[in-house]
């Protein structure tokens, strides 16, 4: 099961990529990794067919199943989500996904 966390880009949004890569990614790896996160992939938006990227950043967190994610989130989601304000003013969109290919 893949959890996608997307940060939609707007003309006025702020995103500190240096903080995200140096502080937030290690936090997510440490906290969720200790509770069954298999992998974390981070995609930085660079462009789209229309020009500007639709998303500033997309994070893909892989877990064995929803139950494993719920345990990890239950243990650390407050800490992880509280850190978001340190690198962006964007409200992240969290979606649960099944890999189909």
Question: Any idea what the radius of gyration is?
Answer: 14 Å
Shape: globular
CATH architecture: 2-Layer Sandwich
Per DSSP E runs of 2 or more residues, the count of β-strands stands at: 4
CATH topology: Alpha-Beta Plaits
Number of domains: 1
Uncertain regions spanning at least 5 consecutive residues: none
Total helices: the number is: 2
Mean pLDDT: 96
Task: State the distance separating the first and last CA atoms.
Answer: 12 Å
Strand content: 25-35%
What profile does the largest beta sheet have? Answer: 4 strands, antiparallel
Helix content: 25-40%
Order of helices and strands: EHEEHE
Per CATH, the class reads Alpha Beta
How would you explain this protein's 3D organization?
This protein is an alpha+beta fold and 101 residues long. It has one domain (2-97): 2-Layer Sandwich (Alpha-Beta Plaits), CATH 3.30.70.100. Helix content is 35%, strand content 26%. It is built from 2 helices and 4 strands; from the N terminus they run βαββαβ. It has a 4-stranded antiparallel beta sheet, with no helix packed on it. Helix 1 (17-33) packs antiparallel against helix 2 (66-83). The two termini are 12 Å apart. 13% of the residues are buried. The model has no long low-confidence stretch (mean pLDDT 96).
């Amino acid at each position: 099961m893949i959890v996608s966390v997307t940060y939609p880009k707007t003309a006025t949004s702020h995103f500190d990529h240096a903080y995200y890569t140096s502080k937030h990614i290690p936090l997510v790896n440490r906290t969720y990794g200790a509770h069954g996160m298999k992998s974390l992939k981070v995609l930085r938006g660079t462009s789209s067919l229309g020009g500007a990227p639709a998303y500033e950043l997309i994070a893909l967190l892989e877990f064995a199943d929803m139950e494993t994610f719920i345990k990890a989130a239950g243990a650390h989601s407050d800490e992880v989500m509280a850190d978001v304000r340190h690198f962006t003013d964007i409200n992240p969109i969290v979606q649960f996904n099944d890999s189909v290919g």
